[in-house]
Design a protein that fits this description.
Blueprint: E1 13-15, E2 18-26, E3 31-37, E4 42-48, E5 53-59, E6 62-69, E7 72-77, E8 80-85, H1 91-103, H2 105-120, H3 125-140, H4 146-158, H5 173-191, H6 199-229
Antiparallel strand pairs: 1-2, 2-3, 3-4, 4-5, 5-6, 6-7, 7-8
Helix pairs in contact: 2-3, 3-6, 4-5, 5-6
Length: 230
């Protein structure tokens, strides 16, 4: 998907040894749906204007759903569901969520896909959608610096490009960049003095992802609306 102000890839791309096909289209209930199909896993991700997400992963008989809303992350598999409400979640809830993530073949396949996409350092709409979810899952799976590293990468990429007082028509790419840069800067300040094992670190990471997802939604929704008018 090519958007004014920024090139966004729509064609099939090669990551690792598998062909991966991406698509972004309007979803249900005023959300955007990201569809990703690879040889190992099928992905459907819904993002709403608040930055809340629903990640549906299928690999063979394994199906798992990871949803985020405000300060809560929920992992559902079959009839079992495990939720953590941050930052007050006790350690045993975090362990149950991590155990559910580790036990899922679909999660492992998606994490491998997200790692391969990470190597591209791409910020196109489709790939960034995969990277954001991949980093959030890595954060809750024990990689306590996963989200912060992506935050630094995006901050270093966008901050030098910002130009005060300039707006783009029909899309405001600069506003999108500015929203992400501000979220990144606040995350660095918020987690600077926190222990890797502090639940507050998970809470701040989840809040950062929500803010970036909301900015992503606003930009991509505007782009899709603009393209529909052409």
């Amino acid at each position: 998907m090519t958007l004014p102000g920024r090139a966004v890839e729509a064609s099939a791309v090669r990551v690792s040894d598998a062909d991966v096909v991406y698509a972004v289209r309007p979803g249900s209930r005023q959300s955007l749906a990201v569809h990703v199909v690879s040889a190992e896993v099928c992905v459907r991700k819904l993002v709403d204007r608040h930055g809340h997400t629903r990640l549906e992963l299928d690999r063979g008989a394994d199906r798992i759903v990871v949803s985020t809303e405000a300060s809560t992350l929920t992992v559902s598999s079959g009839e079992a569901a495990f939720a953590v409400d941050l930052p007050s979640a006790p350690e045993d809830e975090l362990i149950r969520v991590r155990t559910a993530l580790v036990a899922s073949p679909a999660i492992r396949a998606f994490r491998a896909l997200a790692s391969a996409v990470d190597e591209t350092e791409s910020d196109t709409a489709e790939r960034l959608a995969v990277r954001l979810s991949g980093r959030l899952l890595a954060q809750f799976d024990g990689d306590h610096g996963a989200v912060r590293r992506l935050s630094r990468e995006l901050h270093d990429r966008y901050a030098p490009q910002l130009k005060r007082g300039r707006r783009q028509v029909p899309l405001d790419w600069e506003m999108y960049q500015s929203s992400i840069v501000h979220a990144c800067a606040e995350l660095q300040l918020a987690v600077g003095g926190l222990s890797y094992w502090s639940p507050l670190r998970h809470a701040r990471a989840l809040e950062w992802v929500r803010r970036v997802e909301a900015a992503w939604y606003a930009y991509v929704a505007s782009a899709l609306a603009w393209r529909a008018r052409q």
